[in-house]
Amino acid sequence: MIAKKLAAEKAVEYIQDGMVVGLGSGSTATWAIKALGEKVNAGLHIQCVASSVASENLAKQYGISLVDFSALSDIDITIDGADEVDAQCNLIKGGGGALLREKILAYNSRQFIVVVDDSKLVHTLGKFPLPVEIVPFAAELTLKQLRNLGCETSIRQKDGKNFVTDNGNLIADCFFNQIEVPELLNINILLIPGVVEGGLFLHPKVNRVIVGHADGSLHFMKGDKKE
Ligand code: 5RP
Q1: Apex 112 CA angle, 14 and 226, nearest 5
Q2: Choice from 28, 85, 113, 196 to test ligand 1 binding pocket (greatest atom count within 8 A of CB)
Q3: Among this protein's residues, is 102 annotated catalytic?
Q4: Quick check: is 220 in a domain?
Q5: What pLDDT is recorded for position 225?
């Protein structure tokens, strides 16, 4: 817990007055939202856009001012967690099912800061099942096409029912075990009709990766501390 909290709080140090900030989802992003909330209560003026209903509700509790996706033309910084980070800083995201909005934020932000504890670091992506958001009405056909890419996959379940994303879609969790060429897999996934978005976030869009450790230390896997 301390490792995630430290990484998230370090990322919040990059937020300045007047910025438009993307809020990630998950337990690490939650620490960032809490830290931002404290800064807002202390007088920081920012506008935020949330990647999930859960993050939006949390931000509201802290009195953080929120804007809708449709009203945005620019995002300064997005802070978000990840499920896996490989040695090149490619990511698997979407463990919480918020990958579509998370990817839109990451893609459109001047800076995308990833905050993780060191348990998320891997040599090669793929042990964590890759989440892929798919349209519900063609789920079986889309699963078949995903399996053709070399994975085992099924629709994510929650409380005995299909998990439904904030966008009304389903999540196919794809067990690849080893993703040797994430760039190629990402393209092949996005080419399947019925796929809305995939959970591979590729390194060119990742500006900083801040890693927290249980002993209270931090390291920057990508990005300079002083920038
Ligand atoms: C949600 C995500 C999260 O960032 C990811 O699952 C990591 O979560 P946590 O910080 O709880 O470990 O992608 O869709």
Answers
A1: 40
A2: 28
A3: yes
A4: no
A5: 72
